[in-house]
Amino acid sequence: MSRSSDRDCPIQPAASVAAADWYRTPVGRLVAADLIEALGARAQTAFGYHALVLGESGAELHRRFDWGKRLRINHVAQAGPPGGDPRNSLLPVDLDALPIESEAADLVIALHVLEDRRNPHEILREIDRSLRPEGRLILVGVNPASLLHLRSRFWPGCHAPLAAGHHHPAWRVVDWLRVLGYQIEAIEPFGGVVPWCRASTYQRGVALRGWGVEWAWFLNGFYLIDATRRVVARPSRPAPAFRLSSLIGSPVRGEVAGRHSHPARLAMSAHPFVQPTRADSRNAR
């Protein structure tokens, strides 16, 4: 392919950036309101000094969900991959190398950032590195087993922005988090089972969404995972009760196969770091 054709091809935005565009649609705003309620309830039990919100959707939700008022954390930093809306006051960062000190954040809210990678292990490791022990992690993603995912891929319509990226099932993300030592606090579905495009129809389907959360939670369009970083203390090596110099050459009375040997010679030859001399071997013969 020539260079001119490469220039003509449009650059696809990141999945987290495309999800922010979907939250600006009429139906997306209603789903964002449900997400705001779920995030607010979960964030009430998170305490600390520093919070990190990852994803372009964080700026869109910030317009209706003031992080400073709803969170119990004073300092909130918002960051996301480059390529988003320049009007958003987001810090452009590389998700594989976050510019944050290790164990500096008390709360991390990741909105659709795992969907930017087919294998988001580096992103999870960076989030784990930046989160302090006993810190909270809240992940939001699109459910690939939902009708919303199916429609965004084959009959996109108003859900076309959600077709970008790689959607990971909640059970797989939970397995990744458990490998990293996280305790899963809750998995909450939201967004409903039926992927409506009309805001009025979505508003009338409150009872249907309640039924979907109770009985068809695995078919809801989105999921929220709340996890706590647990760090198990590794047992330290016991301090030796003796010194190596005191063991070498000390008179030890030993008996091997009913025969008495010289005590000093037995102690010297039995030690793994001391080799017997030629004189000792001749005397042994």
Please describe the topology of this protein.
Blueprint: H1 3-8, H2 15-22, H3 26-43, E1 50-54, H4 57-62, H5 67-70, E2 75-80, E3 91-92, E4 105-111, H6 121-130, E5 131-142, H7 147-154, H8 170-179, E6 182-190, H9 199-204, H10 206-215, E7 222-229, H11 244-247, E8 255-256, E9 259-260, H12 263-270, H13 278-284
Parallel strand pairs: 1-2, 1-4, 2-3, 4-5
Antiparallel strand pairs: 5-7, 6-7, 8-9
Task: Please provide a brief summary of the model.
By secondary structure, the chain is of the alpha/beta class. 37% of the residues lie in helices and 19% in strands. The strands form 2 sheets. The chain has a 7-stranded mixed sheet, with helices on both faces. A two-stranded antiparallel sheet has the order 8-9.
Keywords:
single chain; 285 residues; alpha/beta; Rossmann fold; 2 domains; seven-stranded mixed sheet; two-stranded antiparallel sheet; 13 helices; 9 strands; disordered N terminus
Tell me about this structure.
Strand 8 and strand 9 (259-260) form a beta hairpin. The protein has helices at 3-8, 15-22, 26-43, 57-62, 67-70, 121-130, 147-154, 170-179, 199-204, 206-215, 244-247, 263-270, 278-284; strands at residues 50-54, 75-80, 91-92, 105-111, 131-142, 182-190, 222-229, 255-256, 259-260. It has a seven-stranded mixed β-sheet, sandwiched between helices. The chain has 285 residues and is of the alpha/beta class. 37% of the residues lie in helices and 19% in strands. The chain is globular. Residues 1-11, 241-248 and 261-275 have low confidence and may be disordered. The protein folds into two domains: 11-229, Vaccinia Virus protein VP39 (Rossmann fold), CATH 3.40.50.150; 244-284, no CATH class. It contains 13 helices and nine strands.
